[in-house]
Structure formats: structure tokens, C-alpha cells
TrEMBL record:
Assigned keywords, A-Z: Cell membrane, Membrane, Transmembrane, Transmembrane helix
Topology within the bilayer: Multi-pass membrane protein
Bilayer-spanning residue ranges: 20-42, 48-67, 79-105, 117-141, 153-176, 182-202, 223-246, 258-279, 309-330, 342-361, 368-388, 394-416, 428-451, 457-474
Record organism: Pseudaquabacterium pictum
InterPro entries reported for this sequence: Poly_Biosynth_Transport
Name under which the protein is recorded: Polysaccharide biosynthesis protein C-terminal domain-containing protein
Places the protein is found: Cell membrane
GO cellular component: plasma membrane
Main location: membrane
Source organism, top-level taxon: Bacteria
Amino acid sequence: MKPGFLRRIAQGGGLSAVKLFTGLVKIKVLASVLGVEGVGLLSLGLQFQATAVGLVSMSLAVGVINLGRPAWVDGDAAAAGQVLGTALALVGLNATVFLAALALFGQALGGGWLAAFAAQGISLWPLALAAVVVSFANVLWEGLSFLVDRFDVYVRSNMVAAVCDALLFGLGAWFFGLPGALAASLLGSLVLFAVYTLFSARATATRQILGRLSVQRARIRPLLSYSVLMLSTTALGLSCLFAARAHLTAVAGESANGYLQVVTALSAYLLPFVMTGVWGHLHPAAAASGDTTAARVELHRTLVASMRLGCAGCVAVVISAPLLVSLVYTRSFLDAQAFIPVYFGADLGYMFVSVLGAYLLAVGQKRAYFIGYAAYHGLLLAGVLLAAARWGAWAYVLAHALAAVGVTALALVHALRSGLLDGTTLRTVAGCALAALACCALDHLGTVLPLGTLAPQVSWLLGPVVILLVLAPLRPRWLPRWGRA
């Protein structure tokens, strides 16, 4: 595996760890200061901001990377500047329309939930302005950092911004309550933009493209083709997940959704640890060259290394579940422990599909990407709607497993028919996954060794062995680098 990918995995894992720690600190402070109702209202406002970011930015950063990266690699800074400049013009137009619509029709468009803010004399304008700033930061600086393959700029900027954001939210809520927390969102977005600017301005490549910014009408349609895809998949996924969780809560109760949150939250910590590095490494490389032999070789290397890390992480979470649940939550959530081996076993398939999806999107195979994304969320929602009343939270866990297996099968068929993956890569990935799945199955069954009063679970002993085996091929290349350091 190329050292660059492992470095990006480490950088992405570091960013995920910083965001996790600062997020937990922020949640603890906000919960203590604002109380249940205040946190609920704040989360509603932040959901408004997240939705606004999606609408204003239109996920144009993906188009900037996919369309601008090949031009930059070919030495055409002017073409890359046209792509970025046109995307920024679209964001500016969207921001103008969004702010005007909020000023003229905000109360009518928002419906009854906006009244909760008005009743307390709280304005949503800080969140609206924050959404605009974040949209420009995402398209300009995030898109530009991936376009010129400066993943380190993306990581450092977001690390600093995450720490500042937690500090601003804590201070704002402590001294000014909910209005202070909402204002902190705007200040945090400005800090993000400023930090991005500071780190990006030091890179010669970014200055070259910024000096060639221009708007070209011919660039609009290709950019929008990626925006429509990302908006539709993101909206589809969020809608299906929300509908599934809402239905589960309605028919099985809030406690079922609470136990489910434990396993989905732990999963949300593991997947970005691997995928952030994949996006930082594979997406710029594949977008620059397209679906070439060299790009597929890099896909094979990235997929094998990602699945090794993912399988090791999956097993580590499964065998340490009792400690993790008690540490991150409380012992009253230990009933959720039974879901973890099943859910994380299915996550291995989801991770495999996610890596392939990153490559398909980078090389412009948008239809295959959309079909896989839609199939997973459609199967998940259908399973929950059909079985939640009978099986409760298990319906969601099993629907996730069914959807992951189904989409993995589709991905394998597509990969084999198109020659995307070779036999060696598939055998390596399958071997790692089967070892991890065996550990998950033994943990779920609760199989124990008859060693008197000790009686440890087999998975507790097998897990460390599996972790060492799947990570062993990565180790020889790491140790010399550390030793020389």
C-alpha cells in the first residue's frame, strides 16, 4: 500500500477523534446549561442550518473536484479556475435567493416550528448567515483542497475549527443561553472560513487557481449534474433514515430508538475513521485520471487497506462493547449490546460498498453510485416499516443487515461484470471479512470456553488474534518509518 494512503487514513482518523472529543464536550456543556428543552430547540435550529447548507451549496464541491482535478493535473489552471469560479457564482446566487426567501416568506415557509423560536424572541438569522458562510467554505476551500490534493489542509483546518466551535458554543451557552449558542454557530462558521483561508493561502497551488477564477456558462451544466446527484442521494438517504427512526419510535417506543442510537452512534464513529482517508486519497487520484488501469490498481490497494482497517475496527468495537457502552453512555444502555455484533458485521459490507462508491463517483459512474445508494436506503426503510411493530429495534438492525448484504451483492456483480476488481483483491477482502464475521457471530451467540470460574467468551480471545492477522500486512511498512523518526 502506498504510504500516502496510510498517512491520509491517520490524518482522517485524527480528525474524527478530534471531532468526537470536542462533540462530546460540547454536548455535555450544552445539556448542563440549556436543559432538555433548550437542547431540543438548539438541535432543531442546527437541523435548519444543515438543511440550508445543503440547499445553498448544492454539494458543488464534488463537481469542483471531479471537473477541476483533471484540468489541474493537465496543467490547465485556467480551466480549474473556471470550474471553481462558476461554482462560487452558483453558490452566490443560491445564497441570495435563500436569504431573500427567508426575509420575505420565512415564517410561512417554516411552518409552526419557527413559532417556538419567535415565542422566545430568538432569531434564526445567525443560523441562516452561518449556513451561507459554511456553504462558501465547503465549495471554495474544501473543494479547492481536494482539487489540488492537499488533504492535509482540509484536516488541519477542520481540526482547529472543531476545537474553536466547541469553545464558542460552550461560552455562548454559558453566558447567554440559547441565543448565545445560536450566535456561536455563526462565529464558528466565520472561524472555519478564516482558518481555511489561513492554511490554504500558504499553498502555491491554491493561489494559482484563485488567481485564474472566472465564470463560464458552459461549466454550469456539468457542475449541476453532480449537484443533482448528490442532492438527490443525500436527501433520499436522510429522508429514509428519518422515516425509519420515526416509524420505529411510533410503534415500538422511545426506548427502542434510544437503544438503537447506541449502535448507530458507535458505527458513525468507525466509518469516518476509514472513509475520510479514502475520500482524501482515492477521490482526487481517480478524478484526475478517470477509470484507467492505474486508477483501478489504486482502488485495489485502497480497498484492501480500508477493509483491513475496517475489519480490525469492527472486531475491536464488538469485543469491547460492554466497556464502550458504559463509558460513552451509561450502564442502563447495556441492553443495546446485543445489537452490536449483528450491526457491525453488516457494516463490513456497507464499508466495502462505500469504498467502491467513492471510486464510482470519482470516475463519473453516477448511475451505479445512485442505484447502490438508493437500494440500501430503500431496503432499510422497507424492512423497518414491515417489521418494527413486531421486532422493535431488532427490525432496524436486521433491515440494515439485509440492505448491506443486498447492496454488497449488487456491488460484486457490477465489479465482476465490469472488471473493476480482480480475484486477488476479492479473495483478500473476503478473507478479512470472514474472519471478522466469525468473531461477530461468536460474540452474538455468547459462546464461552469452559475454563472454570473464568469462562471467557470465545470472541474475547479470538478478537485480538483476528485484529493482528488482518493488520499484519500493513505493519512492516509502518515500523521502519516510525523507527527512523
